[in-house]
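PROTEIN DATA CARD
Card holder: Sulfonate transport system ATP-binding protein
Chain length: 277
Origin: Acidovorax delafieldii
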Amino acid sequence: MAHAGTLAIRGLNKQYEVKGEALPVLQDINLTIEPCEFVSIVGSSGCGKSTLLRLVIGLEGDYQGEILLNGQRIVGTSLNRGIVFQEHRLFPWLTVEKNVALGLLNSSLTEGQQRATVREHIALVGLQGFEAAYPHQLSGGMSQRVAIARALVNRPDILLLDEPFGALDAMTRAHLQQELHRIWQQEGITMILVTHDVEEAVYLGDRVVVMEPRPGRIRRTVPVGLPHPRERTSHAFTAIKDSVLREFAGHPAADLAEPPLKRGEQLAPAAQWQFAV
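Structure generated from the sequence above:
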């Protein structure tokens, strides 16, 4: 079982320089995420959701304030933070087993321990029997399962999810939301989900953090005090979802579809992004 981490963000401010002028992106972000908690983050385009994930992952270090994982300031990327993107980013020339095993490239485990850990995590995401399959032989949902297994194989303290199901059809998405919840409970890991899908945020999260843009800041945190499994059509579920949606009154619906972390950017060499986060 993974070790659940505590994430503390205190007085976080982030800005970029554009044409010689400072452009504030995040302003006075204060958020504590407890061990084993599942927190969903939603917000309209430009609210800084993706920038916040970049900072937590450690891809950027130029900011004001503190980002602490288990009391230690985050400096650079680390194996104690896993990440799942919208694009699965599997290597097409490697099998499922070898794609998952890549997450252990810098591991201190013995070869036998690595094989056992890979098998365990393939089973965790329900892909027994597909160990020798290649990515082109998998559906989109199965590929994302492999990506989740690869992100968890190092047993990180915290798992970050950037629109992990955004490219999937509605039925596959709903099924993988259920699977992600099962994995979260089974692994006992801290998870942070960035999504533009408010229903997904409420379905999975213990809390929904609503951000507003320009500069990005936390508008409201909505507790989701509903037991699992959650019934999407229940009055209580709908009431919470509507409460979150009301925070976006006045924002065009398209604004909720912010591109996920690093979408459209050219992929860095594997050694720079695959094993360090």
